[in-house]
Amino acid sequence: MLNSRNHFSGKGKYLFGFMLVLFISVICVAFGMNGSEDFDFDRREVLLRRIGHELLLQSGDSTSRVLPIKKIAENEYQIEFENEFTFQPNLLVNTTRHLLAKDPMAGDYVVKVLNSDNSSVVYGYAISKNKKDEIITCIGRKQPRARYMINIKLKETGINTAKNGYLLGSLPFLALVGFIFFRSIKPRRALPRDDQHADIIALGSVLFDAKNRKLTKNEKVIDLTGTETRLLLIFALSPNETIERSRLQKEIWEDEGVIVGRSLDMFISKLRKKLELDPNINIVVIRAKGYRLEINT
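The structure assignment produced for this chain is given below.
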């Protein structure tokens, strides 16, 4: 019974450890994803500002500002400018293609140039890794000077692939952790009869029923107390072996979290009397060591 309790306690510790490590791993993956996304956005913001800078230079403006980049949707960004400017579509296409090629998440994207006054689209095009899917028109028509803003929308699959990469990268580690802990708590193989604390143990001609706390010989039955049962069970699993007093005290009382003033010798004495059912069974004192259950056959 004591070993069974310790076994379940050990399983609980393994399960708690597994859940703790799993929780920490998921948190680390989540923070890793967030940290990477923050870095990607900061790097992308630099590239988008560079697009705005190049566009102003092409217009002959080297002094006005590119306003802070706005993230207007999950995968969509907006570049705004301080002053009016003019642009040539072919230069805009080449500039975005060249700079966004440095962003691994910007494989496919759509660019729209909007009039800041009424948000109408004055020019737009789509870039794709597959050239057949690109849509680029009117690249030779210079646009009039006006207040423009540029919206760039990235295709979602690029970002999702990055997130999946983090998750997939963490799976081998989580699988290893799970294997270690579940292997530790998997059902144990059947043990020999004595190690399983069988309900009925033969002690000479006496049958010891640990579950029902009884000693039986022929038709005679003697009841045992809970403490006597635990004490005899320790002896029964190690017959003819010396059991130290300290072990008996620990397993009978200390592991239960109870300190009693009653002497161990008193329980041994009571148990001896009940074992008189069979004169070949006796609990003897081993001086300065402990006790031994002797069974003479």
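Interim note for the steering committee: Residues 2-58 form the longest helix (57 residues). Residues 1-9, 186-197 have pLDDT under 50 and may be disordered.
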